[in-house]
Each structure stands twice: as C-alpha cells, then as structure tokens.
Predict the 3D structure of the following.
Amino acid sequence: LKEKVANDAFMELKGLEPYSEYEVRVQASNSRALSAGRMITGRTLEDVPSSPVNVLAVVANNTSLLLMWDPPTIPNGIILSYRVEYFGVETTSTANSSFYDVRN
C-alpha cells in the first residue's frame, strides 16, 4: 500500500504493466473516518509486444518453407498481424529481401 498525502484532486499511478486492467478506488478521509469510495476499472495503453516464440521453419518442397510460430508470451495488446521477412543467404536471386504481413 503506497500513500500520498496531498490535497490534490488528481494523481498519476506510475510503473503499471502495459495493456493491463486495474481496479482503482479513491476514498476521502478526515478526522472522523474514511469514505467508502467507488471501485472503477481502467486499462493502460498497448506497448510493443515481445517476439513470437517457438518459431520453426520446415521444408515443404524444393521451393518452399513452412513457417510456424506461437504468439508472443507478452503481447502487450491485441496482436493484429505478424511480419515475416526473409533474406536469400546463398542464392542467385537479385532480390536481397522480402517480407509479408500475415493478418490474424
């Protein structure tokens, strides 16, 4: 329990987790007692997700790879899409890299 003694009618709660829901109650106190207050909920904004996990590339045929992955362990919001980028390591192709956006 953290306490801030002030007469302000506002306070910023810092150090919260991204895209997380919190229950908050504001109570008033005086020399007699503490008011009941009312519980409200609020959610922090999204942040950058962690990387997808368990990424695996399996040979599909002589010109294809099948890619599989699991969602990030810390999504920090709603994952809308994944970007798949690839580079030719040993190739005669003139393209150095390409990418695809994979929508959920």
Summary: The radius of gyration is 24 Å. The chain has a mean pLDDT of 87.
